[in-house]
């Protein structure tokens, strides 16, 4: 199937799904959208392209947004999208700060399916100390996207949190994960060797629908919806209170449902006291939710960042049995994002046939570190693909695509993997896992009226 055919088919399926949601059959849809008799089915099955005019009319007539009818472009129809170093180099541009060249940026592999905005960046500013307030350091104002950064060479990392500036001297293999909107900067400690970073920014579920919804709801509502997790501001009972509000449940009613004393229930609903395991189970049953819904996540960030130095990073071999294919090193991350994994992979085998494939539910980004090329094999839709990636090459890998690395030409290649989740949160995975038989087929491509 040509890419534009897939796009048209997905657009048609969204139109059909929207009409189903609004309980419009073909005849009613045609009348309300001013379409010729008999054409709605052609739009819905992709024979006629859903054009801007039709989307505009649908968004005007029906309570939906143009965006609801817009599918994604599939730019990795073979499962993996590779970007060669030459292509990265061609995207090179120098960004100045305060009128002076400060960074050289190069794009690396991105995909329209995932929220990655990964850049290779070379530091053009050289400093001769590790002072956070060095006037040569030019700060940004922070940005929305989460940033995982991998350091190559003598790079100073600067970050500011609550008005206090910090500087951490980094070496090759060090990494950091940072929260949105914290100002930061980078500089080289010497001009004698390359000082670069891989700045792998991504939005995850913060971008897309959530941001659009909150932009309409506005600042006050977003402030009220925010759940603080920092020590001191964190309320362990915040989720209990939310569900009580949602169900219009009083303390007396919750105490009655759970058998927990009214006084203790009051305390737990206040939010500052943590329920014990037994109380959690009773509250979950009483509120009609799962225990996990009543638990707050934690963040291990200190002043907005989690730093992982290479010298004390955990590493192990993989897989646990059979031929050892890789040495895996765990890089910076945070419990706030349990579905983000940053890994450094040292490839130990020359023979791709012996190496075990790596598979994950996450979107994957990979970048070839070091000086040695690496063989990459993957399987997608029953087909097998094999490429050799050179240093500086990068790739995007779709979820659930098994990939295998092998050393090419006797080298010892090293690959950086950053795995993230997208819009498919655990809630979505549970929902598709509980659909009626045949539901998944229709969820990904609605092709019919909801009744016959
Ligand atoms: Fe940044």
In terms of topology, how is this protein built?
Blueprint: H1 3-21, H2 26-33, H3 40-44, H4 52-61, E1 80-83, H5 85-90, E2 93-97, E3 100-107, E4 116-123, E5 146-152, E6 155-161, E7 164-170, E8 175-178, E9 184-188, E10 196-202, H6 209-217, H7 219-225, H8 238-246, H9 251-258, H10 262-270, H11 277-287, E11 305-308, E12 315-318, E13 326-330, E14 341-347, E15 363-369, E16 374-380, E17 383-389, E18 394-397, E19 403-407, E20 414-420, H12 426-433, H13 439-444
Antiparallel strand pairs: 1-18, 2-3, 3-4, 4-10, 5-8, 5-10, 6-7, 6-9, 8-11, 12-13, 13-14, 14-20, 15-18, 15-20, 16-17, 16-19
Helix pairs in contact: 9-10
Bound molecules: fe (iii) ion.
Q: Could you report the average pLDDT, rounded to the nearest whole number? A: 95
Strand residue percentage: 25-35%
Please state the second-level CATH architecture of the domain at 309-420: Sandwich
| Helix content bin | 25-40%
Number of helices, where a helix is a run of at least 4 consecutive DSSP H or I residues: 13
Bound molecules: fe (iii) ion
**Mind telling me the CATH class of the domain at 309-420?**
Mainly Beta
CATH superfamily of the domain at 309-420: Jelly Rolls
Terminal CA distance reads 29 Å
How would you describe the oligomerization state of the chains in this entry?
A: single chain
State the low-pLDDT regions, or none: none
Please provide the count of β strands.
20
Supply Rg: 26 Å
Assign the CATH topology of the domain at 309-420. Jelly Rolls
Q: Please describe the biggest sheet, giving its number of strands, its sense, and whether it closes into a barrel.
A: 7 strands, antiparallel
How are the strands of the largest sheet arranged? 1-18-15-20-14-13-12
- Class based on secondary structure composition and strand pairing: alpha+beta
Sum up the overall morphology in one term: globular
